[in-house]
Amino acid sequence: MDAKTKESFVHSVFETIAPKYDMMNDLLSFRRHKAWRKFTMRKMNIQAGETAIDICCGTCDWTIAIAKASGTGHVVGLDFSQNMLDIGHKKLDKEGLDSQISLVQGNAMSLPYPDHSFDYATIGFALRNVPDLHKVLQEMRRVVKPGGKVVCLELSKPTWQPFKGIYYFYFRRLLPLVGKLVAKSYEQYKWLPESLVAFPDRHELKAIFEQNGLRQVEAYPLTGGIAALHIGTKENGRT
Q: Under the phi-then-psi rule, with left for phi > 0, alpha for psi from -120 to 50, and beta for the rest, what region is 71?
């Protein structure tokens, strides 16, 4: 699948599954994604007033968490799926965060912001879905300030047996069936496991962060390695 075809297909997937996205995240991660995000927030240690862009923000759970941690800092949630953003808007209304968070329909590979705009650039459970992860990381690095952080929380590849075998059986065989039953979307959830096959493991992704100019890269395996957190820093004085 070439980059343009993948971009179009992924867009159609997320437009389709948006109404069931939060429920399926619980099933996909064994309900661990909230704990992973809390761990990530502790490692980020956001200070009052700091700004962020949450790329591929989906239905905005992480975007909202970042805004609450900052308190006053402006936060942007960017996604190419308007259906996802529509659900996110409802959450912002409920939380009363409309003035602090801006939701933007846009492309992760061409962020509509100048260099050095944010303290953080984050992406959650989406880097494996983009046509060119190097380009996305370069864009994330570009829009953070010197000393700012690029943060990726993503599914990864467990290495410990027998857990690895059990997980892959669930992920490849059972998850699409669950998607068919719960979200009425067999083909979309059949594709999600396939998207992980060619995705780098946490060691490879750490090296990719470094190849794209990020320093002091930290990589944390989560829940037996089925997810991983990567945090890289844009050095002072670097463009």
A: left
Give the pTM. Answer: 0.87
Tokens of 91: 């959450």
Hey, which of 16-20, 107-111, 194-198 has the most confident mean pLDDT?
107-111
Residue 197 C-beta-side C-alpha neighbours within 13 Å: 8
CA separation for the pair 116, 215 (Å, rounded):
16
The single-letter DSSP state of residue 50 is -
**On the CB side of 45, how many CA atoms lie within 13 Å of its CA?**
3
Tens digits of residue pLDDT in 78-104: 999 999 999 999 999 999 999 999 999
> DSSP for 186-219?
HHHHHHHHHHHHTS--HHHHHHHHHHTT-EEEEE
Q: Which of 231, 223, 236 is nearest to 43 (CA)?
A: 231
- Residue 169, judged by CB atoms within 10 A of its CB (0-12, 13-18, 19+), counts as exposed
